[in-house]
Design goal:
heterodimer; A: 118 residues; mainly beta; seven-stranded mixed beta sheet; globular; B: 110 residues; three-stranded antiparallel beta sheet
Chain lengths: 118, 110
């Protein structure tokens, strides 16, 4: 079964750090570009970051540039998002999503909630 | 990169057809045939419904179709069913980001 499972979310104080993980199974992870997309409570989807299959190309939304770092370990079929200097506006459900066969987000995880609050 | 523009809400009766628009610029929707559409039920992860403007992934009903004209893409759902009630988001590849989403449209089946 094709699956993405996120973990690592939780409650963190403003200025704190958190590392999200996404475990992939059921497909050739090393061949797919991967992405993080977030959704603030009651709001729409926001693209956060993307990484190519071999980590050669990395992109960030302006809202997280300089604070978040995306990475992957193809040997472990895992995607990561290191989030530093967290702000209240980073509060959201964070989804990992693959971009495999199409220029689109074709497989999604169930999401992990990140709450930034004092 | 500004979000793509979608209507906040649309509605229709069972069996009817509805269309959701997604307006961008020549740097995103108008410049690339990489528009995709996602369905999201409350508390669930989004699901890919349309990719590359008008293509359906395997398993998606043929009641869902996509098109594009200039800087505006559209999602049409025909033969509306109660289970289609959800939020719908468009997304496009862009010359800068490289991705941008629309603000989302809430579909109500009356």
């Amino acid at each position: 079964e094709v699956q993405l499972v996120e973990s690592g979310g939780g409650l963190v104080k403003p200025g704190g750090s958190l590392r999200l993980s996404c475990a992939a199974s059921g497909f050739t992870f090393s061949s797919y570009s991967m992405n993080w997309v977030r959704q603030a409570p009651g709001k729409g989807l926001e693209w956060v970051s993307s990484i190519s299959s071999s980590s050669s190309y990395i992109y960030y939304a302006d809202s997280v540039k300089g604070r978040f770092t995306i990475s992957r370990d193809n040997a472990k079929n895992s995607l990561y998002l290191q989030m530093n200097s967290l702000r209240a506006e980073d509060t959201a459900v964070y989804y990992c999503a693959s971009s495999g066969s199409y220029y689109a987000f074709d497989i999604w995880g169930q999401g992990t909630m990140v709450t930034v609050s004092s | 990169q500004s979000a793509l523009t979608q209507p906040a809400s649309v509605s229709g009766s069972p069996g009817q057809s509805i269309t959701i628009s997604c307006t961008g610029t020549s740097s995103d929707v108008g410049g690339y045939n990489y528009v995709s559409w996602y369905q999201q039920h409350p508390g669930k992860a989004p699901k890919l419904m349309i990719y590359d403007v008008s293509n359906r992934p395997s398993g998606v009903s043929n009641r869902f179709s996509g098109s594009k004209s200039g800087n505006t893409a559209s999602l049409t759902i025909s033969g509306l069913q109660a289970e289609d009630e959800a939020d719908y988001y468009c997304s496009s590849y862009t010359s800068s980001s490289p991705w941008v989403f629309g603000g989302g449209t809430k579909l109500t089946v009356l």
